[in-house]
Amino acid sequence: MIPPRRFRLSRACDGTTMTTRQPAERRPYWQSLDSGRLLLLAAAGMLIVAAFARTAVGIKQPEEALAFGGFIAVGELLRLRLPGDREAAPIAMAGALAYALLMHVNGIGHGWHVVSIPALQVVAVAAVGMTVGALPHIAAGRPAGITGMSTRLVAVACVAFAFRPIAGSPLISGMRTWWAGLLVMTVLLAFGWLVETVISALIRADDLRARLSVALWDELHVQWPLGTAVSASAIIAVFGAEAMGPAELVLFLGPLLVTQVAFRRYAGIRATYLQTVRALSRVTEVGGYVESGHSRRVSNLAVTVGRELGMTEPDLLDLEYAALMHDIGQLSLRDPIPGGATVLVSAADQERIAELGADVIRQAGVLDRVAELVRCQSWPSRGHDPAPPIGSRIIRAANAFDDLVGSSTDRDQVAAALERLRLDTAREYDPGVVDALSVVAEHRLASRL
Amino acid sequence: MGRVSRAAWLYIAVVVTAAAASLALVVPMAQPKGVPGTGRWCVEFTVLALLLLICDSVPTPLAARQSAWSPSSSATLAAVVLLGPAGAALVGAASVLSPFRQLLLVERLFNGAMNALSGLAAGMAFVALGGHVGLPLPGHSYFPHNIGPFAVAAVVHVLANHLLVWAVLRLNRPERRVPRKIRVESSLALLLASDLGYAALGLVIAALWQVIGPSAAVLVLVPLFVARWAMGQFAEQQRAYAATMAALCQAVETKDFYTRGHSERVSRGSGMIARHVGMRPERIDAIMVAGMLHDVGKLGVPTKVLQKTGPLTEEEYAAIQLHPMRGLEIVKEIGFLNEARAGIMFHHERLDGRGYPMGFAGHEIPEFARIIAVADAFDSMTSTRSYREARGIDEAVDELRSGAGSQFDPLLVEAFIAALERDGWRLPEPAVSVPADRDTVTAQDHDDPTAPLQVVESL
User: Fold this and answer.
1) Global ipTM
2) Which residues of A touch B143 (CB under 8 A)?
3) Vertex B305, ends B302 and B308: CA angle to 5°?
4) CA distances from B39 to B42, B43, B44, B135, B210 (A)
5) Residues B273, B226 share a domain
6) A273 touches chain B (CB under 8 A)
7) B197 and A364: CB-CB below 8 Å?
8) A234 and A196 inside one domain
9) What is the residue range of A425's domain?
10) What is the pTM of this model?
């Protein structure tokens, strides 16, 4: 089953016309890409301007502002890279959300008092905290992460604007009705998290040319554990401030740091894993079994095609591993296939190589789905029983494409290769995959110009 | 803990008795505010004990030590503040009932006694320094006068906990010589830091209790569980990573029937040496990776050269000499490897400077490479080759000794021999006979120091 395609190039669009035609359907899409990010930055900028204009009149309850602003700055300094090259600042987010939801504070000097700060002050404090925390990143030559900061700021502003007007109402901030406050906070935090996730998904869908629904699903999937932790931490910080004053933030930093270290190690090992598989996939190239760079090119192409076809991130990761290792079975051959192009050897040999490769990968015990993709890559895409999975069909087409084109960027060669694949769609290749492949190839040629 | 030695039995008995005695002594003398049996005391005790048990339910196993870690220190320390020393000891003792099934009775007893004792110690430190036990009086705050006593209590708790565990682990391994100087492993430092971080949560729980009552414990569980989820994911990914690497290395070895398992054994041998000379855990991990990958570059050597019988031409010899460079080419993109890369690149250098590819001598050769060279040669000698049977361990050790100083680093050779005596060595399965359809065997082994490659003198 092939998922429905977003961009359907007509079949009549053959090689020769395709090379001259510009991607007409894409243009508004590409324009909206930049405008999406621009819109976000503009919204954040306007919020900041309004916030500073409002706060310039006079800052209310400066002790808390200072404490929370400092906490946000520390959190922004300790950014985190999540799997899939996503940036997060969970500690900063927890601090900013807690400041937005503050009801009472047990201040050191003033005793227990109601917090009555306007929403725009929350935005101002968050913006200043984030900027201060981002300065060391800029000084160290790392990216400033303005998109991420804007996203977080907008999410915090949404929560603040919804909550600050009702913060003082006795129903939610009374001592006996803490549970009502808890309920409201939970709902608002979920809302804020959703805002952040949707914005991130929009930006990501633009950057990666992924389908929005898929990008959203991926984003929700990746973000929910951290989002839950951030929301719970924000609530704890709100009630903690009620009991201990803003100084509790120092105390609370400990457990948050531990959580952050756990996430960092998790993201780190995932990155190392991918890096190692990428590097080791080159053994077939060093061994002279395949052309240099083949595995990497096939995997890049396969992942882009998979994204074009609306595959989700976990599936794309499997696809990437499988594409990187799709030729590993050749290591069991006594001598390299001349030229290394599996597309040119007999079907029986292709099947044997795929089986050998799948055996190697299955040895690992943890990559059975990847092994399955590698095993089925040699099957013809249509009319085979059982039908090969979509990942295998993609690898089959991407591999054939790369065998024919290699690292060349010559338009005619690309067009001829696509034409050849298209002629074989009756049996060898999946027509949907070939269509997606031509969209991707066309885009690559266009962006190279 | 596995098997328990006699000294450890004795030690556990002492700890359990001490804990029981102090509980019997302290509980009746608990402060008036924390008298067991009153309604609020019961609620607080039950909730905190449950929190501790939930924290304990899925501990994170610690690979290097026969122990596991859980964030339960936050529950005990919340008990220190809310219930005082006696309550903290009782909450700690509740870990006897840990729902984690794989625990033996003796481990449960020890864990309960250990947590009770460290809870008691922390509670006494807290009270002795003037900490206020129980919920604060109206209009008062936990902050700032409680923070000092609490910080000391947290440190006392974490230290007592680690000391008691460390002692049982040490007593339980009489066969293993523990280095006289206790090395502070970085993972231990991380562990202590995590424990202190979660201990801080104890005071947060106590403070939240003032505002939202027992729900504080539930709220605090959420981030705890997320952190544990991340740790679990980390452990899972790490296992998957190791397994994948081993599988890929095996794939490289399929090219040659006789060298099966060579990478894995060299990895193990290098790890043994590294451990014996007292390397840090991350470096041990790195050298094991390097050992695993040290020969991937051999794939770049044409099969016909590897399988050639008789002397090699100079070009063929040059192709073999190039394999460490080829290996480097493959692994250079793996970011974390750093030092391991040098190990792969230079594992065929000799101390006298007659090795390849660079001809480095003495301490010009990186430590990783010197270690791998020893393990590599040893495994080659103790494995069967097409041109000879496998040598015995003693014979291979003699060969290593005779090469010490010229080919190998003498200190590392001795370290390896000592590690061999301690840990033993699992010899490769004796290669029965090469299957008939296998024509992929080496005729000579570039790793074998007793049978150097024969090169034709062309000039």
Assistant:
1) 0.80
2) 106, 108, 244-245, 247-248
3) 145
4) 5, 7, 9, 14, 16
5) no
6) yes
7) no
8) yes
9) 281-448
10) 0.81
